[in-house]
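Known limitations

Files may contain more than one protein. Parsers should not assume a single record per file. Below, a two-record file is shown to illustrate correct handling: read the sequence, read the token line, then continue until end of file.
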Amino acid sequence: QLQLVESGGGLVQPGGSLRLSCVASGFTLEAYSSYSIGWFRQAPGKEREGISCISSGDADINFADSVKGRFTISRDDAKNTAYLQMNSLKPEDTAIYYCAASPPFQYYCSGYTSSYESWGQGTQVTVSS
């Protein structure tokens, strides 16, 4: 399993933007580029929700309807890092945001937690005036 560390969370006003980063380490034989990366969030009292994912080779990218058109996902394989750019933030986006990595060579995107085997510790995003 990989070690994942998220950063970039914080307090932002409605309509504002944040960019989350997820840095991976702990590779053995497979390169970072062979892993699909997912972003999830969990608000108090709610289930963990898959909001975006990017597959190995950027072949497959998906967004939940709740964030479509406002969030973008990208990855820099040379830096072992994935990003979640969040624009036009709303109070309902308030949650702990997690990144996750699939097993290697998963060339598709998934919004299900069961598709991922490595998880970061999460970063808090609060949208409030």
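...continuing to the second record:
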Amino acid sequence: QGHLVESGGGLVQAGDSLRLSCVSSGRAFSRNDMAWFRQAPGKEREFVAAISWTGAITHYGDSVRGRFTISRDNAKNTVYLQMNSLKPEDTAIYYCASDRSNPNTELRTSTHDYDDWGQGTQVTVSS
């Protein structure tokens, strides 16, 4: 079980880029699939992207595919989310999460499958 801390959020204009980081204090980080979710005011938490524990497999939500890239550095216990071509509808609190118990090779996209969560970092995109 690890403590997750996100950073890198902020206020940007449409079309700009941001890179979010999430550092884990857990010793099992390199064996866990990791994901980013986001939650806008009044909406449910939404899957954004996930990455396998090796980093070889990634999966994206339809609304961010082609604009966002998830990556990880297991030596630094860190997962990243590079966000390009940001849109006002990307405005949300972004959370990273770890999946400690995925029995399959397919990455999971439901919040219920993720065990540990960070506190979130706010991303605001102005038009």
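Parsers that stop after the first record will miss the second one. For reference, the second record is described as follows. The first strand starts at residue 4 and ends at 7.
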